[in-house]
Amino acid sequence: MKNYYIIDFDSTFTQVEALDELVRISLKNHPNREAIYKEIEDLTNAAMEGRLSFRESLSGRVKLLHANQEHLKQLVSRLKKKVSASFLRNRAFFKKHADEVLIVSGGFKEFITPVVLPYYIKKENIYANTFTFDEEGNITGYDEANPLSEEGGKVKLLRQLQLQGNIFGIGDGHSDFQLKESGMIQKFYAFTENIARQSILEKADHVTPSFDEFLYVNNLPRAISYPKNRILCLVVGNVPEEAVQVLKKDGFSIRQKTTFEEKYIADVGMLLLADGEKLEDVQLERAVKLKTIGYLGNARHKISLDIATEMGIVVFDDLRQNPRNAQFIPKRMATFINKGDTYLSANFPSLQLPKMENVHRLIHIHQNVPGIMAQINQVYARNNINIVSQFLMTNQQIGYAITDVMAQYDPQVLKELKEIEQTIKFRILY
Of 8-22, 44-58, 80-94, 116-130, where does mean pLDDT reach its minimum? Predict the structure, then answer.
């Protein structure tokens, strides 16, 4: 059966609530703006959490806007810069599934349409409210005949559309859950990249911290092979908050602890250590999923770089212990996970990589012995893989090979690459 993807706009496709942003634009110079901002935010949250009917919330918010066509232009410009990161990087999914993706929102077409059209979403697949204007272009209200302006509007709309197939709903609020509650969709995914409403999380079929997660669990084409929200990043010791925020903003699953607790050793994928923290050899040797370590100081005598290298773990540290560099180390960690860069690593060959489009990037870390690249390329040749670009750097211990291949390939290729005898670690980056 055909699949349909019903996607919310506010706080889902975009990071913000558009009406909240619009009122901040239109009331920029109003003497009571802070009180009105708060009133609109309260009305928004009450509706999203199911404490107030959508019609009551919408009417109350529109009355407080005092906005016009010029304000809407400014809003659109702002919203285009506020598209949620995981939607932004998965533009290719929308292009491939343009017929199946619907934007269904209690927001307004006047600002939704220009924001989502560049993502290959068809104009006829955008369902939202519309404003009414006076002759001078001031917003006077909205079309009250539109079902999306009513309580349970999304349910009413889908009943009218009569879509035949499997329908998946992605959103952050009560109106999105109502689709599941009414039986109109197969699964409801609570989207939490921007906001997590506890009352909605408790009702969801699946909590998806990013659009990557939704695509991953449904085995759909995606920009990155493994959702970053599934990579456990353990932060140990007195790490500055600005350093933590770098990794949190990038979408990694953060746990902050005073010590490297035993229960995390088997699952940790990234480790950020405060200056002065020590990682015991036995702990490091058992961290089999660990991909990178960041140390906010000089890692010498605190971490065994030899063991880390033997395990294919990339270490970044700050030899100068510069407190102004609190963001530098976590940024290097994130760039390694996102692109494969090992630039300024303490133990790996230093490699900076270009971002490539429409390819899969494969990382192969191996012992530095003769003939490994020949074996790697024999695998690609046997399987008729088209190599777009390839990079190799070595040091005395290891070789670090990056290969960008065309998007289509047999999964057998991955199995063969992992089975090369001197392989330390292998992963698909994106």
Answer: 44-58
Statement: 228-339 belongs to CATH 3.30.2000.10? no
Q: Quick check: helix, strand or coil at residue 270? A: strand
Cα distance between residue 144 and residue 146, in whole Å:
5
State pLDDT tens for residues 29-39.
888 888 888 88
> Does pLDDT of 325 surpass 80?
no
DSSP one-letter string for 283-294: HHHH-TT--EEE
The number of CA neighbours under 13 Å toward the Cβ of 245 is 5
DSSP H or E stretch at residue 419: none
The answer to whether 272 and 239 have CB atoms below 8 angstroms apart is yes
Measured between alpha carbons, how far is 208 from 188 in angstroms, rounded to an integer?
Answer: 10
Cα(385)–Cα(381) distance, integer angstroms: 6
Identify the CATH number of the domain defined by range 3-217.
Answer: 3.40.50.1000
416 CB-contact burial (10 Å; exposed 0-12 / middle 13-18 / buried 19+): middle
| Same fold? 3-217, 228-339 | yes
Q: How many CB atoms lie within 10 A of CB 405?
A: 21
Q: Minimal CA–CA distance to 17: which of 42, 34, 35?
A: 42
Percentage of the chain modeled with pLDDT above 70: 98
| pLDDT number for residue 417 | 93
Closest CA to 157 of 112, 109, 104: 104
pLDDT tens per residue, range 182-234 = 999 999 999 999 999 898 899 999 999 999 999 999 999 888 888 999 999 99
Position 407 scores a pLDDT of 65
How far is the C-alpha of 194 from the C-alpha of 228, rounded, in Å? 15
Mean pLDDT of 157-176: 94
- Taking phi over 0 as left and psi of -120 to 50 as alpha, with beta for the rest, 323 belongs to alpha
CA dist 67 and 89 (Å) reads 32
Handedness of CA 213, 216, 221, 223 (dihedral sign): positive
The Cα–Cα gap between 207 and 191 comes to: 6
Measure the CA–CA gap between 152 and 5, rounded to whole angstroms. 18
Report the amino acid identity of residue 242. E
Question: Is domain 359-428 in CATH 3.30.70.260, yes or no?
Answer: yes
Domain boundaries, the chain: 3-217, 228-339, 359-428
For the chain, give the mean pLDDT: 92
